[in-house]
Amino acid sequence: MPSPAMPGLMQDWPLTCNRILDHAAIQHPNRDIVSRSVEGEIHRTTYRELRARALRLAKRLEKWGLKEGERAATLAWNTWRHMEAWYGVMGVGGIYHTVNPRLFPDQIAWIVNHAEDRLILVDSTFVPLLENIWPQLKTIELVVVLTNAAHMPGTSLPAVPYEEWLAEVDGDFAWKALDERAAAGMCYTSGTTGNPKGVVYSHRSNVLHAMSASVPDMLGLSSRDRVMPVVPLFHANGWSLAFSAPMAGSALVLPGPRMDGEAIWELLDREHVTLTAAVPTVWLMLLQYLETTGMTLPWLERVVIGGSACPRAMTEKFENVYNVRVMHAWGMTEMSPIGSVCTLKPEVADVDGSALLDIQEKQGHAPFGVEMKITDDDGNPRPWDGRTFGRLKVRGPAVASSYFKGDGGEILDDEGYFDTGDVAHIDEFGYMQITDRAKDVIKSGGEWISTIDLENIAVGHPDVAEAAVIGVAHPKWDERPLLVIVPREGKSPDKADVLAFMDGKIAKWWMPNDVVIVDEIPHTATGKIKKTKLREQFSDYSFPD
Length: 545
Ligand code: AMP
What we know:
Elements: H1 18-27, E1 32-36, E2 42-46, H2 47-64, E3 71-75, H3 80-91, E4 95-98, H4 105-115, E5 119-122, H5 127-133, E6 142-145, E7 159-161, H6 162-166, E8 183-188, E9 198-202, H7 203-213, E10 226-229, H8 241-248, E11 251-254, H9 261-270, E12 275-278, H10 280-293, E13 302-305, H11 312-321, E14 325-331, E15 338-341, H12 353-360, E16 371-375, E17 390-395, E18 418-426, E19 432-437, E20 442-444, E21 447-449, H13 451-458, E22 464-474, E23 478-487, H14 495-502, E24 514-517, H15 531-537
Parallel strand pairs: 1-11, 3-4, 3-5, 4-8, 5-6, 6-7, 10-11, 10-12, 12-13, 13-14, 23-24
Antiparallel strand pairs: 1-2, 8-9, 14-15, 16-17, 17-18, 18-19, 20-21, 22-23
Helix pairs in contact: 1-2, 1-8, 2-3, 4-5, 7-8, 9-10
The protein binds adenosine monophosphate (AMP).
């Protein structure tokens, strides 16, 4: 960085994450934080109390010996204790490292060893999982079970109950003074091939990202909102909601371990949630619950859907049946994670009906702090015409510059852009639409077919619950699409009927060559369709003549 000819004369106020909680506790001290606890009952606290307990935890961690720059893992559901763990660990200069419990046990062990976590804060639900991998863990010295002595599971691990451990100190502590560029948190990519890679967020990147993600044209959070992050804190930095909600002073409703349709609906309804966020598979469960019970969503105003493409039929249901605004969003672990949200710019604000659904199929436009480009395979920029596909690349202050320990080597191009691995087009108004992962796109006769587009259309069929499209080798065209579908409960879709339903909605040459009906489609630990597994499953498949 060049030194300025004339420095500005404003205060150098490090953008550290503890300031977010300070702000919430000062400006919104009594705002609700409601959690479904792992023990089962509904727990209520406030930002004032959460801050007090996070300070106490920071003090307890200091007494235990956690030093600046050291990592503390969490293996936990979304509850107030998990939030305290994040802020407490950061408050003493440590780094929260959220581990996804849905990964394979060996992968979890690999990640914890790679991050060199010194302790782990774990929900009692995951104690058996931890016991199972314990012999493989090389760096963990202490297990803190996020419960009290009365609910402490019997275990051979070197474990203490969080509440009693915390009570050993008072809360008289000041947040560690930190450089805003210091590491604050870590999250490993869910990588379907190779080892996961560690993404390291800084205090500055978390604060800047939370600010830019919560403005009106992005998540639009306010102190009048009651926000329910169903997306777990362990998925892609919890979509930043543990930072953006307290920054905005929004109340928080945390679903804990229960993410079934009924449990989600119960909290949405009882707690008058106004905005919620999760991957499409969660919303599929909720919509099925609503359909079978006849329940409605009178309080909910907005639903943020991301992590995988939101099918048009899902948007249509939320919008037209339940009167909930759908905010399609895209992002990734490497981006802190929000890269775009689909809200309406004035150029498209007047559309409705199917034209509105067309816009909402797009993943939206980027916030301040995310610059995008699409390029061909050689890195040449492609036009923003809403049609031309390209590799989607991004840069900004909350985008990774490299992975932990330098894994994967140099990850930026000459202009500092990170290749997302996604293929997308962008229209003249800046609305981006993901058409595929680069490795999933089907190359048919030299042209690209978007598997996401085909899947979105197929799930619009009334008998189809879920759809996935993969490329299968074809003697003439190299690859052709195979549509794999899971029927809705009690339905038995007819292949020809599904294809007839798709006919006319896509170019003729995009039509799948065949349809296969299965009971289940494999998913990754973050709820995405696992195409690698599906391709393996159909490796012997060949199209009928
Ligand atoms: P993760 O880091 O686990 O959140 O995965 C990030 C990847 O998920 C992105 O690179 C996309 O491939 C995919 N993804 C996230 N959001 C969307 C979305 N709204 N539509 C399509 N793909 C998405």
